[in-house]
Amino acid sequence: MSLNISKNAVIYQIYPRSYRDTNGDGLGDIRGIIDSLDHIADLGITHIWLSPVYKSPDDDNGYDIADYKAIQPAFGTMDDFDELVAEAKKRGIGIVMDLVINHTSDEHEWFKRALAGEEKYRNYYIIKKGKNGKLPNNWGNFFAECPWAKFGDSEEEYYLHLFSKKQPDLNWNNPDVLAEVKDIMRFWLDRGVVGFRCDVINIIYKSSLENGKSQLVLTGREHFLSQEGCHRILAELRRDVLEPYGAFAVGETVFVDTAKGRDLCDAARGELDMIFYFEHMECDQVFVKWFKTQLRPKKVMKTLTKWQTALEWNACYFENHDQPRFISRFRDLGDNRAEASKMMAGLLMTLRGTPFVFEGQEIGMVNGDFRDLSEVEDIESHNIYKMAKGLGIPKRIRWKMIQRTSRDNARTPMQWSADEGAGFTTGTPWLKINGNYKTVNVAAEAAREDGVLAFWKRMIALRKSDATLAEGSFSSLYQGAHVYAFARELDGRRLISVCNMSGKAVKLPKSLQGCERLLISSRNGAGDRLMPFEFRLYECETVK
Ligand code: NOJ
Questions:
Q1: What is the dihedral sign for C-alpha 64, 280, 286, 531?
Q2: Which residues are catalytic?
Q3: CA dist 68 to 62, 161, 182, Å?
Q4: Cα separation of 498 and 512, whole Å?
Q5: Across the chain, what does the average pLDDT equal?
Q6: Model confidence over 407-437: pLDDT tens digits?
């Protein structure tokens, strides 16, 4: 089985509530995305991954779905959605839906009917009696909650939720659940979507509900991470649903190592086209993501190299709606926001795999400038803050943790212009707009010939048109404290990507000093000295 997406594809992720609001309610909407299609097409994007737009009570901003076949009213209507698919198609852009099937909302009809006592729907969820007044097992939860909640009025029954209490996990041992999901996928494929981003897909199948061995995070995970049952389900979804439509699937996969990752997207097994792993997101953390330390560029280089070499094809990304902005992680960023963003464009577009650009990345948006917890909305951040308080962590440190790690850092509204509301809304934005919007915005960037946006466009265009970048092999050439260099090679042509991942000017590594044919420098550089956060691309046969 081959990839169900062109190797030239460049995907843009939209977090709809933060993208563009057309009715002044402070929340982005589908019409706002339609109105932005020219920006997206102009950027050179081939696919849009839409974070959930389904009907949802928004406990986890749409990742808690109450109806898989309805559009969230605040985002618009099904007609708006169909128009989006059609208008995107006119511009050569395919729409990719977020498929959230580990759990539903507790406001989904299935859960309500389960609560009402319908046996069929009780079997859709994981409901279990406690043991002698205790919880059914000792598992952990992704949002630092107890993973078991009382099922309705029952004194002894609990349902499992690996995320919030309002996100009950589905029972993937039940073939009816599989049949429902196939039906949901076909519903969207029939409306013209071309693929799915599959939310936490490697945890859907629980092979046992036994106690787990005690872990710092997520005790019990040996019972639900990448189980055989999960592989079976993915292969079936691929064979029965995706293949007949030629649709592709990228899986969000947690706690995967390269061996597990390879299994999940090995073409011969026919499950996923590619996966999002997290290891490179963890290069500035101690044990868990809420404890941050300095970003170690060398660790990023090592991790990227490891995955680039281990997998036949990668999903390449540095930002999404769950991660702080990548350029904000550089401790020595200083005044180099724009330069660092350009360097990341160069890096992302020259790695082997499908590049995913997160909204705002193309103008170098940075972390939110939140002053205290009252400005943060994210459920995960609030839970972690509470947990840290329980552990006796002082208030100042608690806030520092949230400030640096909150998912809201990436969710601040898209900055379109210097107008009040950043061109995102005429109303009150659902989340505080970054105060830098007067200078960091799409309109300002459109006027800068050598600006951040222009550089992203240039790199995306190159990524799409250059066969060596699209298809060539990968080999690492240099990993230093600051500089990363790697080669992409196809049919004897060799491109060399060089990234200075630091705010210091540094020497070009000796082995690269013979490279003469400089195709691109993000800083109009040349010679043996790399400027802070400079990206270069060489064509060079000699360096091995
Ligand atoms: C991963 C999603 O990206 C995240 O935003 C969400 O909270 C969890 N899965 C639960 O669906």
A1: negative
A2: 199, 252
A3: 11, 19, 12
A4: 9
A5: 96
A6: 999 999 999 999 999 999 999 999 999 999 9
Q: How many angstroms does the Cα of residue 380 sit away from the middle of ligand 1?
A: 10
Please tell me if the CB atom of residue 169 comes closer than 6 angstroms to any atom of ligand 1.
no
Closest CA to 64 of 162, 161, 167, 145: 167
Torsions phi, psi of 235, nearest 5? -65, -40
96 lines ligand 1 (CB under 6 A): no
Ligand 1 centroid–CA 276 distance in Å is: 13
Percentage of residues of the chain with pLDDT beyond 70: 99
This prediction has a pTM of 0.98
Q: Which residue has the tokens 């997406």?
A: 5
The predicted structure's pLDDT at residue 543: 60
Residue 134: CB atoms within 10 Å: 9
Beta pairing class for 535-539 and 506-507: unpaired
- CA–CA separation, 63 and 161 (whole Å): 13
Q: Report the pLDDT averaged over residues 94-120.
A: 98
288 — phi, psi (to 5°)?
-125, 160
Q: Which residue has the CA at smallest separation from atom 6 of ligand 1? A: 63
DSSP collapsed to 3 states, 132-169: CCECCCCCCCCCCCCCEEECCCCCCEEEECCCCCCCCE
- Verify whether ligand 1 is closer than 6 Å to residue 199 (CB atom): yes
Distances (CA, A) of 356 to 112, 130, 216, 328, 364: 37, 43, 31, 18, 15
Judged on CB neighbours under 10 Å (0-12, 13-18, 19+), 310 is: middle
Tokens, residue 180: 């429902």
Phi, psi of 479 (to 5 degrees): -130, 105
Tens of pLDDT along 233-281? 999 999 999 999 999 999 999 999 999 999 999 989 999 999 999 999 9
11-14 and 354-358 beta bridge pairing:
parallel
